[in-house]
């Protein structure tokens, strides 16, 4: 696991108790290499989103370890986990989660302000993030004026404002047509390789397979191994 910024070791998660309990993850161990996409696939209810929540320090497993740069983050306090998420992890969602009342530029600027970035260069830095994703002509538009692929690119730009070491994406292409989905997949691939980031995607979308270095499958909370 030495080439991995992120890994899980024998992680198990159970929701509920007694006869109503559900084993969402069962003894999952997996390393996520740097500068590459790891694609996690599986049917609904397989544990994909639960695993992504664990990787994002949003959910603590009852058993096992989550290692970030070799350190078990599950031993940290809630405040420390919040700091880890803020400083090291970026999130991309299927639903984009943009503020409808703000322009593309303002959405990115707000994310920068929330994580403590301020000063006269804030606008130009946010503009550069959007320009790097081919949105230089769209910065003044609100989400309702953007296509699905453009909204997802704004969401990716927002996620990258903190220069995260790890980028976690939950079904980032599921609501996009084939052309937009392939564009987003290519962008995530370039982010991983060119920017040397660890990118983890959970998805049903087979279009993502060619862009991933590793493809693994979850079923009923258990890791079945590599699917490619």
Can you give a write-up of this model?
With 228 residues, the chain is an alpha/beta fold. The chain has one domain (4-226): P-loop containing nucleotide triphosphate hydrolases (Rossmann fold, 3-Layer(aba) Sandwich). It has six helices and ten strands. It has helices at 48-55, 78-88, 104-114, 122-131, 148-160, 178-194, and strands at 4-15, 22-33, 36-41, 63-68, 71-72, 89-93, 166-170, 198-202, 214-219, 222-226. The strands form two sheets. It has a six-stranded mixed β-sheet, sandwiched between helices. Strands 2-1-4-5 form a four-stranded antiparallel β-sheet, covered by helices on one side. A hairpin with a 2-residue loop joins strand 4 and strand 5 (71-72). It starts with a strand and ends with a strand. The model has no long low-confidence stretch (mean pLDDT 92).
Topology:
Elements: E1 4-15, E2 22-33, E3 36-41, H1 48-55, E4 63-68, E5 71-72, H2 78-88, E6 89-93, H3 104-114, H4 122-131, H5 148-160, E7 166-170, H6 178-194, E8 198-202, E9 214-219, E10 222-226
Helix pairs in contact: 3-4, 3-5, 5-6
Short recap of the structure:
The chain has 228 residues and is an alpha/beta fold.
């Amino acid at each position: 696991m030495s080439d991995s910024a992120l890994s899980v070791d024998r992680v198990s998660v159970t929701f509920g108790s007694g006869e109503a309990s559900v084993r969402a993850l069962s003894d999952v161990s997996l390393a996520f290499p740097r500068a590459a996409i790891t694609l996690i696939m599986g049917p609904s209810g397989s544990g994909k989103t639960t695993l992504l929540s664990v990787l994002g320090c949003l959910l603590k497993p009852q058993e096992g370890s989550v290692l970030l740069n070799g350190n078990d983050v599950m031993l940290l306090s809630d405040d420390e986990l919040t700091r880890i998420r803020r400083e090291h992890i970026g999130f991309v969602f299927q639903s984009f989660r943009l503020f409808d009342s703000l322009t593309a530029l303002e959405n990115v600027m707000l994310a920068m302000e929330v994580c403590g970035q301020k000063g006269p260069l804030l606008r130009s830095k946010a503009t550069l993030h959007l320009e790097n994703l081919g949105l230089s002509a769209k910065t003044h538009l609100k989400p309702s004026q953007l296509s699905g692929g453009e909204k997802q690119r704004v969401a990716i730009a927002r996620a990258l404002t903190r220069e995260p070491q790890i980028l976690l994406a939950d079904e980032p292409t599921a609501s996009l047509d084939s052309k937009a989905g392939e564009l987003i997949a290519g962008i995530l691939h370039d982010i991983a390789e060119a920017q040397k980031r660890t990118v983890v995607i959970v998805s049903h979308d087979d279009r993502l397979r060619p862009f991933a270095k590793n493809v693994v499958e979850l079923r009923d909370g258990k890791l079945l191994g590599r699917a490619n």
